[in-house]
Amino acid sequence: MLEGRVPRGPREKYGEELKLRRIAAGMTQEAVAREMMCSPTLISHYEAGRRLPSPADAKRLDKALGTDGFFARWLEDLDSKFADHFAAAAELEKQATEIRQYGLTLVPGLLQTEAYARALFRSYNPNYRTDDVDRRVVNRMDRAQILEGTSGPVLWTLLDEAVLRRRVGGVLAMATQLRKIASMAETGRLRLHVLPFGVGEHSLMESLLTLMSFNDAAPVAYVEGMYTGNLMDDPALVTNCRTAYDLALGDALSQGESLALVRAAAEEHEHDQQ
């Protein structure tokens, strides 16, 4: 990776190779677009890694560039386990040296237990399929593997108190989830802070936020909403997001106070089971 650049994910690598092959073939984006009967803008999106071609379009690319099925075969390997809006962020998680995450209403995915994640995925669909939920849970658990061992990222976690109070999956699942977070903080696997209700308004009220830093590339910020997400690498936007995170962190409880609150919330959930 080059200094100042966002780490390249699979889509970006695909797009860069497409650009190299197009130039080697002596073709402009407009010429490729004519061969494929699409707009030059679409070719531009492919080359920038913002979009991937459909299987049919990948075959048309190969025909236009004379690449003998290269892009169609590569596309098969880029079938992400995650939603399109999150796929690039998921790849960058694996390369990050530091992750700072804020949970507005939910426990961040990297920290979720299987029971918590399963309850969420069931709630997202009116007629969920068990095999689909199982697949999503496995993918989410696999993401957390980056936190194992000594080579994983430094992890900061800031939670709104609402995350502690909403019972996802029932009282036992919720208590287990909170105890996992507390245990990770106590053993040094994450730095934990909670924004209590008493703080009132704060700088992160509008969105969850993930900040990622890298050894040899520029930092990025990721925000997510309903069926959409935005991975930001513009330096000014990333700086604004980091400032918002720092402001909220300044309003949060200390790690000791946060641990006590998380454990107390877990006990309250367990008590209500009795």
UniProtKB/TrEMBL annotation:
The domain of life is Bacteria
Residues annotated as domain HTH cro/C1-type: 18-70
Pfam families for this protein: DUF5753, HTH_31
Q: Which protein are we looking at?
A: Transcriptional regulator
